[in-house]
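Working notes for the structural subgroup meeting. M.R. asked for a predicted model of this chain before we commit to crystallization trials. I am recording the input and output together here so anyone reviewing the notebook later can reproduce the run.

Input as submitted:
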Amino acid sequence: MEVINALGRRKAAVARIYLSAGKGNITINKRSLEEYFPYKLLQYVVTQPLMLTNNNEKYDIKVNLDGGGITGQAEALRLAIARALCKVDAEANRPILKKNGLMTRDPREVERKKPGQPGARRRFQFSKR
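Returned structure, recorded in token form:
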């Protein structure tokens, strides 16, 4: 099997992954999954597409993660893994991943701060007198 690459984005985070046949190792920016994401919930989010398609021990994944916070990075990585698994075997994996909502890129972004106000929507307090 050749190396398959895929891209996932969420908020300001970008995940570029390289999926190859292996023993199930996930390396993120030259660190292990447990070291990079110390929280069990984020580890679950990242491995969700692999668990749903029963591919936990089949592939080694090398990841370049950049930008955003840890939750955005974890969700960007989840999307990238789901897209790579679809490139491997679309007929078997895509319906399962799509049914669980893992093939959709979350379009929500931070709204910019407007001039003359303290935040994006917040206004300064109004004083009648």
